[in-house]
Design goal:
With 283 residues, the protein is an alpha/beta fold. The protein is 61% helix and 8% strand. The protein has 2 domains: 120 residues, no CATH class; 125 residues, no CATH class. The protein contains 10 helices and 4 strands; from the N terminus they run H-H-E-H-E-E-E-H-H-H-H-H-H-H.
Length: 283
């Protein structure tokens, strides 16, 4: 087939025409690469945490060198080390208008008067300086949101809170700590940690969101998760995409999530009790 196409080209186009055609093809590929936009870490800051701003600005640049590649490999996105599809700025401030109180960072889409879309990540130094150990986790979590939303563009409206947040927690690598803290707050009772995935977004539901993603990975694997994200890019909701890839209806998937979550919470409860028993014996 390829040989026939080459013969057809030679019969129908001059050498100059073939050269021009090839230049068009390759220039389109080159332009596609060059349209990537580098993230802009804003250097302007007028707050009370100047020392933290300088240190955290450097840390942001260090993290982006390898975290963008990690996000891409985990979720199936390509090219983010070269830049984003839409303008993306990172801004430091004291205090913020975050949709959830007391969070150190959040990311949101915005558009200008011409309708040009862009994303902004806001890092609240009032919160982050109070909990400096959380900086990397918070930043990676929000950077994951930024990459996912940038790749999906307008299709990101199809994301449901449990999937959007669950994926970000999974990539940030702190899901186990979310679950352990929730279980300890519930006095090692698994039932209060189990929540409805269809409910409104709340930080108290984040452990369940993470467990749902883990249950999904147990069913479809890493490549299956990438396929689900691709289906969302094609216009499906996460719930529809899960059924496409896993064969499970939404109701059946929720049953599986509940069973998986209960099993994992009981396993963690056992580990916590054993650790407490060892500490008691050591006293």
């Amino acid at each position: 087939m390829k040989d026939n196409f080459i013969i057809w080209l030679l019969q129908n186009f001059s050498v100059l025409g073939i050269v021009v055609l090839s230049q068009i093809i390759f220039s389109r590929h080159s332009n596609a690469e060059s349209t990537r936009i580098k993230p802009d870490v804003l250097e302007k800051y007028s707050g009370q945490h100047e020392e933290a701003f300088v240190a955290d600005s450097k840390r942001v640049l260090e993290l982006m060198k390898y975290v963008l590649e990690r996000i891409g490999e985990t979720l199936g996105f390509q090219g983010y080390q070269e830049g984003f599809n839409y303008p993306f700025t990172i801004r430091f401030t004291d205090g913020s208008a975050a949709p959830i109180p007391n969070v150190g960072a959040y990311t949101y889409f915005k558009s200008d008067q011409m309708g040009v879309m862009a994303q902004e990540m806001v890092l609240d130094l009032d919160v982050l300086t109070a909990y400096p150990q959380d900086f990397d986790r918070e930043f990676i979590h929000e950077l994951t949101h930024a990459v996912v939303h940038d790749d999906l563009g307008s299709k990101s409206r199809n994301l449901t809170p449990w999937f959007d947040e669950g994926v970000a927690i999974y990539v940030a690598g702190d899901g186990e700590s979310w679950v352990e803290h929730a279980l300890r707050r519930a006095h090692l009772k698994p039932e209060p940690v189990l929540t409805d995935l269809d409910g409104p977004q709340q930080s108290t539901r984040y452990p369940q969101y993470f467990l749902a993603i883990q249950a999904l990975l147990e069913k479809v694997g890493q490549e299956g998760l990438k396929k689900i994200i691709q289906r969302i890019f094609e216009g499906r909701t996460p719930e529809e995409a899960i059924q496409d890839v896993s064969g499970l209806s939404w109701d059946a998937f929720q049953v599986q999530v509940h069973s998986y979550s209960l099993r994992k919470l009981n396993e963690m409860k056992t580990l916590i009790l054993k650790a407490q028993e060892s500490e008691t014996k050591g006293l």
